[in-house]
Amino acid sequence: MDTVELSGGYEFFRESAEINDVSNPVSQEENGKKEQPDELLFCKSCLNPVTRKDQAISINGSHTHTFFNPDGIVFELGCFSDASGCLAMGEATSEFTWFAGSSWRFGLCRTCGIHLGWYYEMGDFGFYGLILARLRE
Q1: For residue 43, what are the contacts with CB-CB under 8 A and spacing of at least 6?
Q2: Separation CA 130–CA 31 (nearest Å)
Q3: What is the pLDDT of residues 92-116, one digit of tens each?
Q4: Are 90 and 7 in contact (CB under 8 A)?
Q5: What count of other Cβ atoms lies within 10 Å of the Cβ of residue 9?
Q6: Residue 130: other Cβ atoms inside 10 A
Q7: Which pTM does this prediction carry?
Q8: pLDDT digit string (tens) for 75-93?
Q9: Where exactly are the structural domains of the chain?
Q10: Which residues pair with 11 in a beta bridge?
Q11: For the domain bounded by 3-22+35-136, which CATH number is listed?
């Protein structure tokens, strides 16, 4: 069993990750649609399919956003309505949120556990802000 540690003291075990899953995606075979490879975005680290290009959404007027965290690290994010290859982990917090009125949790690759971005919640609405440099076509 692999343990992944995150900043802020969070850690999780991959075998039990489904407990905190925020999505229950229907597989492409179940809904009768087969994804084309050029529609997918993959984890750059392990090549796990993370999301599809057609899941890109605009938040506050733009799909992409550039932010820095409290440590001064700059991130370029893309916003996606769904990222079934990503797990939302940790307690939701609104501390240092980049989207007014939202709380966030870490977004980790389902396969390798690398930090891919954040899952943002605004009431009943949620979306993923994924670090574009950690994805590939």
Answers
A1: 50, 85, 109, 111, 112, 114, 116, 134, 135, 136
A2: 25
A3: 999 999 999 999 999 999 999 999 9
A4: no
A5: 7
A6: 27
A7: 0.73
A8: 999 999 999 999 999 999 9
A9: 3-22+35-136
A10: 5
A11: 2.170.150.20
